[in-house]
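Practice problem 4.
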């Protein structure tokens, strides 16, 4: 799957482990029967946005962040300055090839969604409005957020089971990626309660 780095916090309750040779390089273990949610950052340019997403991921109970392509990692000071330590409570890993990563996660039973303005997208508010989960198999899910200028890679969108958009009423066509992730994460959490 190209270059992969996995970083764990000493304070973390989740564990990551290596799998069979040639297989997916890591997996997140489920604890206490809770759903596992991860976020994939596809070529996010801004270290500050990455730090903000990590902080929100921690706040909304996401277990892992996949940092892909040109996305800066917490090894950069600007990421940690904004994340305020969230890189220690949300495991993260770097992957050069997000498409290859998602194909591997799908084989392991992960459900893949993206946040993108796309003709296949449904409003995230309508998906989670009822408060009920779509089905019990949503226990392992990844939400993909994309590049601030060009969005999510079309190859990733083609691998998604669901694509969501955030309804907007203003003149701008999109929210800042960190804000959009936080809105989606909140809406997803609201729908699970």
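Answer key:
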């Amino acid at each position: 799957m190209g270059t992969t780095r996995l970083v764990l916090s000493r304070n973390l309750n989740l564990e990551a482990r290596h799998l069979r040779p040639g297989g997916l390089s890591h997996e997140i273990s489920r604890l206490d029967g809770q759903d596992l949610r991860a976020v994939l950052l596809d070529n996010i340019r801004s270290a500050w946005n990455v730090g903000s997403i990590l902080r929100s991921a921690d706040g909304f109970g996401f277990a892992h962040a996949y940092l892909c392509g040109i996305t800066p990692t917490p090894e950069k000071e600007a990421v940690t300055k904004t994340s305020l330590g969230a890189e220690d409570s949300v495991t993260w890993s770097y992957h050069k090839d997000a498409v290859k990563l998602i194909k591997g996660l799908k084989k392991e039973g992960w459900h893949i969604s993206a946040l993108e303005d796309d003709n296949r997208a449904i409003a995230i508010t309508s998906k989670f409005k009822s408060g009920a989960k779509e089905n019990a198999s949503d226990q392992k899910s990844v939400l993909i957020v994309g590049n601030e200028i060009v969005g999510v890679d079309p190859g990733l969108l083609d691998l998604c089971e669901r694509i969501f958009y955030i309804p907007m009423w203003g003149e701008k066509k999109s929210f800042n990626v960190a804000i959009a992730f936080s809105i989606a994460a909140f809406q997803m959490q609201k729908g699970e309660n």
